[in-house]
Write a structure and sequence with these properties.
The structure is a single chain. The protein has a 4-stranded antiparallel beta sheet, covered by helices on one side. A hairpin with a 2-residue loop joins strand 1 and strand 2 (63-69). The model has no long low-confidence stretch (mean pLDDT 86). The longest helix is centred in the N-terminal third of the chain and has 47 residues, at 2-48. It contains 1 helix and 10 strands; from the N terminus they run H-E-E-E-E-E-E-E-E-E-E. The chain has 171 residues and is α+β, with helices and mostly antiparallel strands.
Length: 171
């Protein structure tokens, strides 16, 4: 009987810790996948010597998608407009196919494109850095994906109170 009580207490203490680890891992995986998706779009622009755009369609924190296409004007990752394809292959990701994390920023639709020569952002895009902030469902963890005008993509901690170990604080 005493052994069962001790086991029950141990399980009760371990469940919240396991949930936190799962939430942190899901947020990390989603941020890293988004960063890799954007870096892929940039590399394809240079590789194929064509402009490649990345477009975020944002309806809500839990309803968003990102697509990449060989066009300057973006694409529609929701499937209702211009197809998001690179070299004939569909290139999208979003809340419907991702693990449980919410996108906090930018909070609106966004389009940017990469130059085919240097892989930098197209000069017409006047935003200095594009940021995408993802937060765990339990709101304990957050990561931000930054895309600089040079095309550099990095993942960082936007809030010290919601920091994910292994990532530097955002500048």
């Amino acid at each position: 009987m005493i052994v069962m009580v001790i086991v029950a207490i141990g399980v009760a203490l371990a469940v919240p810790t396991f949930q936190n680890v799962t939430q942190r891992r899901q947020t990390t995986a989603q941020a890293e996948e988004l960063a890799a998706f954007i870096a892929y779009a940039q590399s394809e622009a240079v590789k194929q010597n064509t402009v490649v755009s990345v477009e975020l369609k944002y309806t809500s924190a839990n309803n968003w998608c990102v697509g990449a296409a060989e066009t300057l004007t973006g694409c529609d990752c929701t499937g209702s407009g211009t197809a998001c394809t690179i070299d004939g292959v569909l290139k999208t990701m979003g809340s419907a196919t991702q693990e449980k994390s919410s996108m906090l920023t930018p909070g609106t639709d966004k389009v940017f494109a990469f130059d085919p020569i240097r892989g930098t952002m197209i000069a017409a895009d006047l935003v200095p850095t594009h940021t995408f902030t993802l937060q765990s469902d339990n709101a304990k963890y957050a990561l931000r994906v930054d895309v600089a005008p040079t095309g550099e993509v990095k993942v960082c901690n936007p809030f010290s109170a919601k920091a994910v170990p292994g990532f530097k604080a955002c500048a």
